[in-house]
Amino acid sequence: MPAKSDSTVILHQEMILRVSHLSSSSRKLCLLLHGWNGDENSMQIFFSDFSEEYAIIAPRAFYPTEEGGYTWAPSFTKWSRIPDVEPKALDELSLSAEKLYSLIPQWIKFFNLNISEIVLAGFSQGAAMSLLLGFCSPNSFNKIACMSGFLPVNFQQRVETSNILNKNILIAHGTQDDIIPIEKARHLHEQLTNLGANVEYCEDATGHKMSLSCRKKLKVFFA
Question: Model pTM?
Answer without folding.
Answer: 0.94
